[in-house]
Amino acid sequence: MFDWNRSCSYDEQQKRRFHTTARSRLKKLAAELALPPGSFEIRSNRAGIAVSGEITLHHDRAYIQVGQFGLSSGHGILIRTCKGFKDYTGGANHFVALGMLDDIPALAAAVRAITGVGRDDALPASRYAA
Questions:
Q1: Beta bridge partners of 94
Q2: pLDDT tens digits along 115-130
Q3: Number of other CB atoms surrounding residue 122 within 10 Å
Q4: How far apart are CA 78 and CA 90, in angstroms?
Q5: Alpha-carbon distance 104 to 28, whole Å?
Q6: Is 66 helix (H, G, I), strand (E, B) or coil?
Q7: Which end of the chain offers a freer environment for a tag, N or C, measured as fewer CB atoms within 10 Å?
Q8: Is the pTM of this model over 0.85?
Q9: Strand pairing partners for 44?
Protein backbone atom coordinates (compact mmCIF):
# COMPACT_ATOMS: atom_id res chain seq x y z
CA MET A 1 0.00 0.00 0.00
CA PHE A 2 1.27 3.47 -0.87
CA ASP A 3 2.16 5.86 1.98
CA TRP A 4 0.13 8.92 0.97
CA ASN A 5 1.34 10.91 3.98
CA ARG A 6 5.07 10.55 3.29
CA SER A 7 6.08 14.03 2.20
CA CYS A 8 7.08 14.72 -1.40
CA SER A 9 8.92 17.84 -0.31
CA TYR A 10 12.52 17.71 -1.56
CA ASP A 11 12.12 14.01 -2.42
CA GLU A 12 11.98 13.53 -6.20
CA GLN A 13 11.49 9.75 -6.04
CA GLN A 14 8.56 10.07 -3.63
CA LYS A 15 7.02 12.80 -5.77
CA ARG A 16 7.31 10.63 -8.89
CA ARG A 17 5.66 7.69 -7.09
CA PHE A 18 2.98 9.98 -5.63
CA HIS A 19 2.03 11.33 -9.08
CA THR A 20 2.18 7.95 -10.82
CA THR A 21 0.10 6.21 -8.14
CA ALA A 22 -2.44 9.04 -7.84
CA ARG A 23 -2.93 9.14 -11.65
CA SER A 24 -3.51 5.38 -11.64
CA ARG A 25 -6.06 5.63 -8.80
CA LEU A 26 -7.90 8.51 -10.51
CA LYS A 27 -8.18 6.37 -13.67
CA LYS A 28 -9.71 3.63 -11.51
CA LEU A 29 -12.05 6.20 -9.97
CA ALA A 30 -13.22 7.30 -13.43
CA ALA A 31 -13.92 3.65 -14.29
CA GLU A 32 -15.76 3.09 -10.97
CA LEU A 33 -17.90 6.17 -11.69
CA ALA A 34 -18.51 4.87 -15.25
CA LEU A 35 -17.37 8.17 -16.76
CA PRO A 36 -17.44 7.85 -20.55
CA PRO A 37 -14.11 8.28 -22.36
CA GLY A 38 -13.72 11.88 -23.47
CA SER A 39 -15.94 13.22 -20.67
CA PHE A 40 -12.97 13.84 -18.38
CA GLU A 41 -9.24 14.45 -18.35
CA ILE A 42 -6.54 13.58 -15.86
CA ARG A 43 -3.65 15.99 -15.58
CA SER A 44 -0.65 16.43 -13.35
CA ASN A 45 1.15 19.55 -12.13
CA ARG A 46 4.42 18.61 -10.44
CA ALA A 47 4.99 22.19 -9.17
CA GLY A 48 8.20 23.08 -7.27
CA ILE A 49 10.57 20.95 -5.24
CA ALA A 50 9.11 21.97 -1.88
CA VAL A 51 5.56 20.74 -2.57
CA SER A 52 3.75 17.66 -3.87
CA GLY A 53 2.03 19.39 -6.75
CA GLU A 54 -1.40 18.07 -7.67
CA ILE A 55 -3.09 15.48 -9.84
CA THR A 56 -6.54 16.38 -11.14
CA LEU A 57 -9.48 14.49 -12.61
CA HIS A 58 -11.59 17.13 -14.36
CA HIS A 59 -15.04 16.06 -15.59
CA ASP A 60 -17.52 18.50 -17.09
CA ARG A 61 -19.47 18.48 -13.78
CA ALA A 62 -16.88 17.38 -11.18
CA TYR A 63 -13.37 18.43 -10.21
CA ILE A 64 -11.28 16.07 -8.07
CA GLN A 65 -7.77 17.10 -7.08
CA VAL A 66 -5.17 15.10 -5.14
CA GLY A 67 -2.27 16.73 -3.33
CA GLN A 68 -0.52 16.92 0.02
CA PHE A 69 -2.01 20.33 0.75
CA GLY A 70 -3.85 19.13 3.84
CA LEU A 71 -1.44 16.73 5.54
CA SER A 72 -1.81 18.37 8.93
CA SER A 73 -5.60 17.91 8.74
CA GLY A 74 -5.40 14.44 7.22
CA HIS A 75 -7.07 15.68 4.04
CA GLY A 76 -5.65 15.73 0.57
CA ILE A 77 -8.46 15.10 -1.91
CA LEU A 78 -10.52 18.09 -2.99
CA ILE A 79 -13.94 17.30 -4.48
CA ARG A 80 -16.25 19.94 -5.92
CA THR A 81 -18.79 20.51 -8.65
CA CYS A 82 -17.96 22.52 -11.75
CA LYS A 83 -19.62 23.75 -14.93
CA GLY A 84 -17.43 22.50 -17.74
CA PHE A 85 -13.72 22.19 -18.44
CA LYS A 86 -13.07 25.94 -18.20
CA ASP A 87 -14.47 26.16 -14.65
CA TYR A 88 -11.52 25.92 -12.24
CA THR A 89 -13.27 27.44 -9.22
CA GLY A 90 -16.54 25.49 -9.23
CA GLY A 91 -18.81 24.87 -6.26
CA ALA A 92 -18.01 24.56 -2.58
CA ASN A 93 -14.83 22.73 -1.61
CA HIS A 94 -15.15 19.35 0.11
CA PHE A 95 -12.12 17.46 1.42
CA VAL A 96 -11.57 13.78 2.15
CA ALA A 97 -8.53 11.85 3.31
CA LEU A 98 -5.75 10.85 0.90
CA GLY A 99 -6.14 7.31 2.19
CA MET A 100 -9.44 7.05 0.32
CA LEU A 101 -7.32 6.52 -2.80
CA ASP A 102 -6.83 3.01 -1.39
CA ASP A 103 -10.62 2.43 -1.34
CA ILE A 104 -11.91 3.46 -4.77
CA PRO A 105 -15.54 2.35 -4.17
CA ALA A 106 -15.70 4.53 -1.03
CA LEU A 107 -14.08 7.46 -2.85
CA ALA A 108 -16.55 7.03 -5.72
CA ALA A 109 -19.42 7.09 -3.22
CA ALA A 110 -18.09 10.37 -1.78
CA VAL A 111 -17.77 11.87 -5.27
CA ARG A 112 -21.34 10.82 -6.12
CA ALA A 113 -22.67 12.23 -2.83
CA ILE A 114 -20.91 15.58 -3.32
CA THR A 115 -21.28 16.09 -7.08
CA GLY A 116 -24.08 13.80 -8.25
CA VAL A 117 -21.73 12.48 -10.91
CA GLY A 118 -21.21 8.78 -11.32
CA ARG A 119 -22.52 5.37 -12.18
CA ASP A 120 -26.12 6.09 -11.08
CA ASP A 121 -26.25 9.26 -13.16
CA ALA A 122 -25.22 7.23 -16.25
CA LEU A 123 -28.14 4.79 -15.96
CA PRO A 124 -31.06 5.15 -18.39
CA ALA A 125 -34.23 6.75 -17.07
CA SER A 126 -36.20 3.60 -17.98
CA ARG A 127 -34.48 1.83 -15.09
CA TYR A 128 -36.51 3.96 -12.69
CA ALA A 129 -39.87 3.47 -14.41
CA ALA A 130 -42.52 1.72 -12.35
A1: 79
A2: 999 875 544 433 333 3
A3: 12
A4: 11
A5: 7
A6: strand
A7: C
A8: yes
A9: 55
